[in-house]
Amino acid sequence: MARQTETGSQAASGTERTRSIGAGVQRAFLDHLAATGSVEAAAEAVAIAPLQAYAACRRDAGFAEGWRAALRVGYDRLEAMLIERTAAVLTGASSDPLETPDVLFALRLIERQREAEAPAVKRARAGAGAADKTDAAILKRLAMLSKRHAAEEARARRTQEGDDA
Questions:
Q1: Closest CA to 19 of 46, 44, 55, 71
Q2: Do 50 and 40 touch, CB atoms closer than 8 A?
Q3: Is the pLDDT of residue 41 over 90?
Q4: What is the pLDDT of residues 113-140, one digit of tens each?
Q5: What b/e string do you get for 77-114 counting C-beta neighbours within 10 Å, with b at 16 or more?
Q6: Domain map of the chain by residue range?
Q7: Distant-in-sequence, close-in-space partners of 96: CB < 8 Å, separation ≥ 6
Q8: Which ranges of 14-60 does DSSP label H, i.e. alpha helix?
Q9: CA distance 22 to 4
Q10: DSSP label at 140?
Q11: What is the DSSP-derived secondary structure letter of residue 92?
């Protein structure tokens, strides 16, 4: 059975082709990615090359979704750290300035992430409205067909009763 991962030296030298990574390595990678927000640190933690992780992300839709979820966790952690830092400054527990380049950069990252997710939320809401309209149209059409079917059955009964008489 072929090995699932490369060793660090093989990955660094590029002597072996990128191979798929096992489910356990993927889970560990995603856990590290969520904790650190760093692909390089996560790859190093599970002894794979970052390029191998990117390749697996392209090939495996489930892994790609896990990657996006891990990054969302990373953004949530970043936001929590900024809130913590702000609270420390506001309560006097810290005298560090709030508007430092790293804080401003983190705020811009969070803002970009929210903007990127906003169209998906809008599409989901629009889709839900469209689905409700579609459901209502289908139910209306079914009601019309039911009435037509009942009328046709009544007509057939009357015709049959007239023939029997």
A1: 55
A2: yes
A3: yes
A4: 888 877 766 666 666 667 777 766 766 7
A5: ebbeebeebeeeeeeeeeeeeeeeeebeebeeeeeebe
A6: 1-71, 99-165
A7: 85, 88, 89
A8: 23-36, 39-45, 50-59
A9: 6
A10: H
A11: T
